[in-house]
Amino acid sequence: MSKKAAVTSKGAGGTTPGDDYGVELESATRGLLALNVVVLEQMEKRVGLAPLRALQALDRLGPCLVTELGQALEMVPSSTSRLSDRLAEAGLITRRVAPHNRRATVLELTDAGRAVLDDLVQHRVDVFRHVSATMSASNRAALLRGAAAFTAAYHQLVDHPAREGSDSR
Fold it and tell me: What is the tally of structural domains in the chain?
């Protein structure tokens, strides 16, 4: 199951006690989402969203085949190959023949590719600092606790999705 499917899958039974909470949480996190959108829009001017997604996937996967990157991005092989060609031409990744199969290509981030991802994180950190400086210490602490708990729950869901038909209590 893909991460997208793990997150968007809805259990049988219709509404749950958390339905209202989901609406409230969506509303409460619009500022966080807006901040990330602004940062991504600025990065898009530099590298584009598809290349940025590919760099992030390569960072998670490590050196991998073009087909593996395509699966991670849910892209067809020809599109993934063209995207990796552009990233290699820009010096953001390397492409080399796979040692086990001369017809396969291994992709890997370069230092320049990692620098793009580091810049993305640093830009978000800077903007988070700027906005959170206007919050009280107790609100900042509460936000950190809640965001950390949410991130842990998200990773639990996407890294260990419940099997279809199993009890996911």
Answer: 1
